[in-house]
Amino acid sequence: xxxxxxxxxxxxxxxxxxxxxxxxxxxxxxxxxxxxxxxxxxxxxxxxxxxxxxxxxxxxxxxxxxxxxxxxxxxxxxxxxxxxxxxxxxxxxxxxxxxxxxxxxxxxxxxxxxxxxxxxxxx
Length: 123
Fold this sequence. Notes:
- By secondary structure, the protein is mainly β.
- Helices cover about 0% and strands about 60% of the residues.
- The strands form 2 sheets. Strands 2, 4, 5, 6, 9, 10, 11 and 12 form an 8-stranded mixed beta sheet that branches.
- The N and C termini lie far apart (about 35 Å).
C-alpha cells in the first residue's frame, strides 16, 4: 500500500490550496484518516483527522480555515486549506489506518504515511 500526496506548492498570504492523498495497492478499507504537518525545526503535529466512525477533528490553529474530507470509493482523502498564512508553511503528511487484503483474507489494519508534500505560504 502506498499513500501519494499531491496539490502542494507555493501560495500567497491569504490564498488557498487543496491537498489530495490517494491510497493505492491492496486496499480493502481505509478507516481513520488524517493530515499532519512539520514546519522547520518543529515536530510533526496533527492538523486534522477523521477518526473511524467519528467526525472531523481539527487543530485549533486551523479551525475554520481547513476542511478534511474523504472519498472512500476512491481511497482518497483531501485537505482544503484557505486563508493561508506563513505559519502554515510546512511539509504536510497524510496518514491512514488501512486494512489490506491478501489471498482472499482481510489483514489487521496498519498505519500508513505519505511521503510528505511541501506547502509554502509567502508573506
